Amino acid sequence: MWIPGKDNIGKDVSKYPAALKTYAASCAKTYGQDKVAFVFAQPSAELVKGMTQTAIENSMSIEFNEWPKSLREIAAKLGALAAGGVRD
C-alpha cells in the first residue's frame, strides 16, 4: 500500500509515474513473490499540476483532491478497495 506525501512527488511531476511503477515492480522481488498486489493513492491533477494517472499491472488505486490531514481515512478506503479483489 502506498500513500504519497507532498515530498514524495518531487519537483518534476512528470517523473513520478515512472518512479512509482519502478517501486511497485520492486515489491515482488522484495517480498520473494511472483506478483504482489499494489494498492495506492494518487493526488489528482487538480491538486498537483501536471499529475497523470499511473497504470501499474496488478494494482488498484484511488485518487484524492486534497492532501489528507490523516492517513487513517485514505488507508481505510484503500483497504476496502483491496478487500474487494485485485484488478489492473
The percentage of residues in β strands lies in 5-15%
Mean pLDDT: 89
Question: What structural class is derived from the secondary structure elements?
Answer: alpha+beta
Number of domains: 1
Q: How large, in whole angstroms, is the Cα Rg?
A: 13 Å
Report the count of strand segments. Answer: 2
Helicity range of the residues? 25-40%
Number of helical stretches of at least 4 residues: 3
Any key phrases for this structure?
globular; alpha+beta; 88 residues; two-stranded parallel ribbon
In short:
The chain has 88 residues and is an alpha+beta fold. It contains three helices and two strands, in the order H-H-E-E-H.
Descriptive report:
This protein is an alpha+beta fold. The protein is 36% helix and 14% strand. Strands 1-2 form a two-stranded parallel sheet. The two termini are 15 Å apart. The model has no long low-confidence stretch (mean pLDDT 89).
Layout of secondary structure:
Blueprint (H helix, E strand, L loop, with lengths): L5 H4 L6 H15 L7 E6 L15 E6 L6 H13 L5
Parallel strand pairs: 1-2
